[in-house]
Amino acid sequence: MKIIENIVALFVVMVIAFIIIPLPPFFLDFMFITNISLSLIILLTTMYIKGPLEFSIFPSMLLITTLLRLALNISSTRLILSNGGQAGQVIATFGSFVLGGNPIVGFIVFIIIIIVQFIVITKGAERIAEVSARFTLDAMPGKQMSIDADLNSGSITDAEAKQRRKDIQGEAEFYGAMDGATKLVKGDAVASIIIAVVNLIAGSIIGMVQGGMSITEVLSVYSIATVGDGLVSQVPALMISVATAMVVTRAASESNLNEDLKRQLLSQPKVLIIAACAIASLSLIPGTPKFQILLLAVILGGLGITLIRKANVKVEVEEVDQMTQLAEQETSEVDFYRNIDNVYNIIGVEPIEMEFGYSLLPMVAEESSGNFIDRIVIFRKQFAMDMGVVIPTVRLRDNGLINPNQYIIKIKGEEIAKGEVLVGYFLALDPGNNSEPIDGIETIEPAYGIKGKWVTEDQKEMAEVFGYTVIDALSVIITHMTEVIKQHMHELLSRQDINTLLENISKTNPAIVDDVIPNIVSIADFQKILVNLLREGIPIRDLESILETLGDHGTTIKDTDMLTEYVRQRLKRTITRKYTDGNSIKVIALDQEIENIILNSAKKNEHGTYLAIDPQVVQSIVEKVTEQIEKLKEIVDHAIILTSPIVRIYFKRLIEQFMADLTVLSFNEIDTTIQIQVIGMIKLEN
Fold this sequence. Notes:
Blueprint: H1 2-5, H2 7-20, H3 25-48, H4 58-82, H5 89-99, H6 103-153, H7 158-209, H8 215-248, H9 257-265, H10 269-281, H11 290-336, H12 340-344, E1 352-356, H13 361-364, H14 371-387, E2 394-398, E3 406-411, E4 414-420, E5 426-429, E6 441-444, E7 451-455, H15 457-465, E8 469-472, H16 473-492, H17 495-506, H18 510-516, H19 523-535, H20 543-553, H21 560-570, H22 572-579, E9 584-590, H23 592-601, E10 602-605, E11 608-611, H24 615-632, E12 640-643, H25 645-655, E13 663-666, E14 675-682
Parallel strand pairs: 1-2, 9-12, 9-14, 12-13
Antiparallel strand pairs: 1-3, 3-4, 5-7, 5-8, 6-7, 10-11
GO cellular component, one term: plasma membrane
Family: Belongs to the FHIPEP (flagella/HR/invasion proteins export pore) family.
GO biological process, one term: protein secretion
C-alpha cells in the first residue's frame, strides 16, 4: 500500500537514476516500450476530455514524460557509443525499418520527422498556450464580476459560486503552467537533434578508430542506431506534442472531441455530396488514378445521401412527436382547467411587468450577465431609501408579437409606456448647445422625450468629444422603467404593503401604531393619505412623524385630503430638501384674487370637497400659469407654484388635470431657514 501511494515519487527518482546508471539492453527496450505506451495513453486521454480542467495534471505529466525521454536518450547514447552501436532490439528495429536499406534516404526521413515535430507542432502548441494563458488571465476580473452578479441576483447559490471561482482559478493556473511546460517539449526536440548528431559523428569516429571498421560499415551500423534511437524518442515526443496542442486548443464542450467532430463535421451532408462531385471530376484529368478517385467520391456521396435521409426521417419523427405532444397538452390543459380553482389562478395581474422583443432578450436575460436584474435590485434599494416604500417584483416576459427592438412597461396588466432601443448601439443625447453634428439613427429618448441619435461603438468616443451625453441601451431601458415606476408608485402601494410598513415600524415604536391605527385612522384612510403623498413625490419614509400628525389631527378631521395637508406641513424639512437648491428656493406666486376665486368655489358634500368654477375662469387660470412657466423656463428647470396653505390642495386638483407634473407648495411646507425668491406672479389681469 505504501509503495502504491508513493509510486509517482519513486518513478521520478528512478528516471533520474537512469541518467547516471548504465542500463542493460533488455531493460532499456522495456522502458522504451513503456514510454511509447504512456505517451499513447496521454494522447488518447486528451481526445476524450470535455475541457482542459478534466486533465489538469497534464503540465506535470509533460514534465515527467520529457524527463523520461531524456534519461532514456542518455542511456541509449551510452550503449551506442560503448557497445559498437548495439543498444537493444527496439532501436535496431526502428532504425532498420525506417532506413529501408538506404542510410541516406532513411536519415533524411528522420530529419524531416524532427523538423515537423519541432517547427510545426511544438512551436504551434507553445504559441497557443502562451496566448491562452494571457487571455485567460485578462478575462478573470470579468468572470469574477459575472459570478458576483449572479450570486447577488440569486441565480446561483454560495456553493455554486465557490465552485465557479475555483474553476476560474484552476483554469488560470492550468494555462499558466502550460505556457511554461510547452518550453519543455521545445527543449526536448532540440536535445534530440543534438543527441542524434553526437551519436552519428562520435559513433563513426569510435567505430573507425577503436573498432577498425570501414567507412561503409560505420555508416551502416551507426546510422541504424542513430535513426532508431531518435525515432524511439521522437515518436512518443510527437504524441505528447499533439496531446499538448489538443489540450490548449480544446474549448469547453458538453462532449468529447470524437463526438464533437462527428456532430459538427457531419452536420452538413450537402457539403459531402458537393465534395464528392468535385473529387469525381478529377477523374476527367488524363493520368489520374480513376479507381481511387471514384472510390472516394462514392464513399463521400453515399455518406451524404445517408445523412440526408436520416435527417428527413428525424424531422418527420419530430413532427409526429410534436403533434402528439400538442394533442396531449390540449387534453391535459382541458383536464387542468376543469378545476375552477385553476381558472382563478390565471386572472390575476402583475403589479409591474415588462415585455421585450426577441432582439432584447439576450440583454435582459438572467443567465446572460445578470446586469439588468442587478440594476433593478439596486434601484429598489435606492428607491426604498429615498421614498420609504419598496417597489414590488418586476416580472420580465418575452413578447414575439412586438417589434424585436421594442419593450413595453405595464402597471397592473395595462400598458403604461413603451420604447425602442438598438442592441449594440449607444444613445447620444445632445445637451442643446452642441454645434458639431454626428452621424447616427435619429430617435427620441423614451424617459424624458429628448432628441438623440443611436451611434455605434466606434462613434461613441467621438460623440463624447463633441459634448454629447452617451448612454448604453440597457441604461436607456432602466432609466425609462425607473421613471415610470416613480410616476405610478402611488398606484402600486397595496394594502399588504401598508401592513408590512406598519409591522416594520411596530418593531421600534409599537405605541404610535397601536394608538393611531385603527383607533383614530383606519387602514383604508391611512393608505389614501400615503397614496396622496406618493402621487406628488413626497417620501413616506418618516412614518413615525406621519402617524404622530394623524394622531394629533385625526380625532377632529376625517377628510383624508386635509389630513394629507397637515402631514405635508409636518414633513416640511423633507419637502424643503427635495425642492431647494442651497439656502433658497425660486417660486411663482399665486395672486390673491385667484386664491379667493378658488376658496369661494370650494363646495362640500358627503364624498368630500370639490371645486365649482366657471370653465372660462379655469381656462384663464391655466393660460396664465402656462404663460408664466414659459416665460421663466430659462431661469428655472422645474417650476414651483407657491400658494397659501388652505388653497394648495384645491389649486393642485385644478391644475393637475392640465399639468400633472407641476409642483404646488404652500408657505407652511417650506422650512423657515430657506429664503423664498418670488420670480413670477400668476394674475388673471396684467
